[in-house]
């Protein structure tokens, strides 16, 4: 049975859970949760801090620099993995490489009209990192997606204009034609090459 029984204790515990989740989502190496709790208690109770503002500022600066350096190193690794994957993939006979560097293979040819850059389309799609990790899939949601051809990543904008309605392509998208150096949230790291299965269901307008 929980030691927290009152309404106020439940709410207080919930606040702690939320703060802990925020820390877990953005941790740094060496984060000391006991020291976090001590700082929280000192601030709430108006106690004299055990660590000076000067030391705290210096620590924040150093930790931030370490994290930026680690992110830069990880980005280099991710970019290299993507480049190597695409270079090897381009050797396959079924893969076409466009002038921009986009790679695709035709899974289903399709016989309908092709959208223009000003069209809005309805598609089913399945997106993964090059290691197969799924980050988004309308198939898994069970509902197609509609969007303007000009309102998606550059690799998609290019590919959709080549696809007749009814076609299904597999796209291999270099990071320059995807989310680039910024990535997209936690799911897509910076400099990630991406793989999409895209099925063009209809031109909506």
TrEMBL record:
Keywords: Isomerase, Rotamase. The keyword DNA damage does not apply. The keyword Isomerase applies. Residues 118-204 form the PPIase FKBP-type domain. PROSITE patterns: FKBP_PPIASE. It is an enzyme of class 5 (isomerase). Transmembrane segments: none annotated. Its EC number is 5.2.1.8. It catalyses: [protein]-peptidylproline (omega=180) = [protein]-peptidylproline (omega=0). SUPFAM superfamilies: FKBP-like. Pfam families: FKBP_C, FKBP_N. GO terms for molecular function: isomerase activity. It comes from the Bacteria. Belongs to the FKBP-type PPIase family. This is Peptidyl-prolyl cis-trans isomerase. It comes from Alkalimonas collagenimarina.
């Amino acid at each position: 049975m929980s030691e927290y029984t009152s309404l106020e204790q439940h709410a207080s515990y919930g606040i702690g859970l939320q703060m802990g989740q925020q820390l877990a989502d953005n941790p740094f190496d060496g984060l000391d949760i006991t020291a976090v709790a001590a700082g929280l208690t000192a601030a709430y109770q108006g106690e004299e801090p055990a660590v000076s503002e000067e030391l705290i500022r210096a620590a924040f600066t150093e930790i931030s620099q370490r994290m930026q350096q680690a992110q830069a190193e990880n980005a280099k690794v991710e970019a290299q993995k993507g480049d190597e994957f695409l270079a090897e993939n381009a050797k396959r006979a079924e893969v076409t490489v466009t002038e921009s560097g986009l790679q695709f293979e035709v899974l289903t040819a399709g016989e309908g009209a092709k959208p223009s850059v000003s069209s809005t389309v309805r598609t089913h799609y399945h997106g993964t990192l090059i290691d197969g990790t799924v980050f988004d899939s309308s198939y898994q949601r069970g509902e197609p997606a509609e969007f303007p051809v000009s309102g998606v990543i550059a690799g998609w904008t290019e590919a959709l204009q080549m696809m007749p309605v009814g076609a299904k392509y597999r796209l291999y998208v270099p990071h320059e034609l995807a989310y680039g150096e910024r990535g997209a949230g936690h799911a897509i790291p910076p400099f990630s090459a991406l793989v999409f299965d895209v099925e063009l269901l209809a031109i909506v307008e």
